[in-house]
Amino acid sequence: MGWLALIGIVSGWPLGLSSLRQGSTYGDCAISVFGLIVFQFGFYLASNAHNDIPWNTVIVGLFFQQVIALFVLKSDAGFKIFRWIATLAQDFLGKAAPAAQFFFDANTIAKHWFFVNTLSAIIFFIAFVQM
Fold first, then answer.
1. How far is CA 103 from the centre of its chain?
2. Is the C or the N end of the chain the one with fewer CB within 10 Å?
């Protein structure tokens, strides 16, 4: 029963239950379904203990992944919730730039080096979590 529900939601949503966006084809949608199958098969092949794979957990996880994707991508409420979460994260990590001036000088910060900006955000987040 779980396999049928998973196959229904994974193949039904991109291949027929929803309207296509402009410029998109069913082939584009089939590529994503094929990619999901290839990844799962690759993980199965990479496993040392094929019989110990908890398939019920895998099926439920993939099912909930698709349900959350449907909620976020197809409903306005889901999109607004995740946009709000992204805005919170952006605002929070944006406070790392002033904190970076504690470690580096203003000239180094003004150069916008990837390492400096990324390191300052990581240090800021770790310091916040450790409090």
1. 31
2. C
